[in-house]
Write a structure and sequence with these properties.
Length: 167
């Protein structure tokens, strides 16, 4: 059976790759932060199946290890990708400076942020961007776990029970 370490690293790599693919349109710093988030999400996704169904023996693989669960996740990836875009929008909002109208000229001027505010909005922006990558990486990590397990002699169940899928 692939061990926890293998799942962690393969998951992180898969998450990083998928997050990178999804963030191609993003600016360079955001792209890098999303890749970081993707690696984290992939790592969590990569060990999640064994959290849900601890590897006490090679028959531990139940529904959370099933091909059906993997299929459902691939299907749900679009929803996660949508959430990721919401995270990106939130990140972009952190950059917007509040404006105030000049009563004499009618012109809208940005209020210069106080330093603490500036730091806070940068933290917010970072977290939202990281989360976008994390969400994208999660599925990739989980599916990589199922693929690794499916490549073992016992394979993974199709649904529940002992009808196994092997690759
Ligand atoms: Zn497993």
């Amino acid at each position: 059976m692939p061990g926890r370490e293998t799942h962690k690293y393969v998951g992180a790599t898969a998450g990083l790759a998928l997050a990178a693919a999804q963030a191609q349109q993003e600016s360079k710093p955001h792209f890098l932060i999303e890749m970081m988030g993707g690696a984290l999400g992939g790592m969590v996704g990569g060990i999640a199946p064994d959290w849900l169904e601890p590897a006490v023996c090679s028959w531990h693989r139940g529904i959370c290890h099933s091909a059906a669960a993997g299929g459902a996740l691939v299907y749900a990836q679009q929803a996660l990708a949508n959430w990721a875009s919401i995270c990106r929008q939130n990140a972009a909002k952190c950059r917007v400076l509040p404006q105030v109208e000049d009563i004499h000229t009618g012109e809208w001027l940005p209020i210069p942020p106080i330093p603490l505010q500036q730091v806070w909005s940068e933290i917010c922006e970072f977290i939202w961007t990281l989360l976008a990558g994390f969400l994208n990486g999660l599925t990739a990590g989980y599916v990589s776990h199922l693929l690794l397990d499916a490549a073992t002699p016992r394979g993974i169940p199709i649904w529940t029970g002992r009808t196994a899928l092997k690759i």
